[in-house]
Amino acid sequence: xxxxxxxxxxxxxxxxxxxxxxxxxxxxxxxxxxxxxxxxxxxxxxxxxxxxxxxxxxxxxxxxxxxxxxxxxxxxxxxxxxxxxxxxxxxxxxxxxxxxxxxxxxxxxxxxxxxxxxxxxxxxxxxxxxxxxxxxxxxxxxxxxxxxxxxxxxxxxxxxxxxxxxxxxxxxxxxxxxxxxxxxxxxxxxxxxxxxxxxxxxxxxxxxxxxxxxxxxxxxxxxxxxxxx
Length: 229
Ligand SMILES: Nc1ncnc2c1ncn2[C@@H]1O[C@H](COP(=O)(O)OP(=O)(O)OP(=O)(O)O)[C@@H](O)[C@H]1O
Prior knowledge:
InterPro entries: AAA+_ATPase, ABC_transporter-like_ATP-bd, ABC_Transporter_VariousFunc, P-loop_NTPase. The chain is of the alpha/beta class. It is built from 7 helices and 10 strands. It has a single domain (2-227), classed as P-loop containing nucleotide triphosphate hydrolases (Rossmann fold, 3-Layer(aba) Sandwich), CATH 3.40.50. The chain has a 6-stranded mixed beta sheet with strand order 6-7-8-3-9-10, sandwiched between helices. Strands 2-1-4-5 form a 4-stranded antiparallel beta sheet, with helices on one face. The radius of gyration is 17 Å and the shape is globular. Adenosine-5'-triphosphate is lined by residues 11-12, 16, 34, 36-42, 182.
């Protein structure tokens, strides 16, 4: 389980996170929801140790963050970070060389699943195709947890559907997924737990199915209550 407890983050005298606490369990898809600038990416970066936090703690499977733990977590940032002149085949080779946890068979499966071409260059990919390849670079790692920053941002309906299919496939099964979004869209029926951020804090965190059965509300209904209040 990823346990984020009371984390705080200050950027240039501005408090962005004011004591954020939530958990993301293995085998579940947890979605961090918040308007632009709410601090979603900052939380993912803090979990990945890419930005220091000003207070609070983060534990993965009850252990505090340290470099070895990152073999357990794959991070899919909101854009592809590979050089534009690299071919997809070269980027895959780079990942295989760099990560002990790289799973070539799964990468091949995903290349087919997303209908990607090994000989294409990173710089020539459309936004949606780049998003699929970015996801492949995360899913290609045999990690227990997968963190994804806005995997659907700016992507057309068909590419979004292809990416959404990954969430219901055995490519995800058993892993803990933590993703961010500012619009829930077709993610609504895929996620297990929603964590709504507001004013640097968690305003609501709930199991989506329980919310539907017990209060008859969808994630969007709760978002309306929180963000329109
Ligand atoms: N390196 C930085 N230096 C200064 N301020 C920053 C830095 N990174 C982020 N911020 C600020 O922190 C706040 C939270 O940013 P963050 O990117 O975490 O939000 P977000 O919820 O992911 O937003 P979006 O939905 O637009 O991606 C924003 O106001 C942003 O301007």
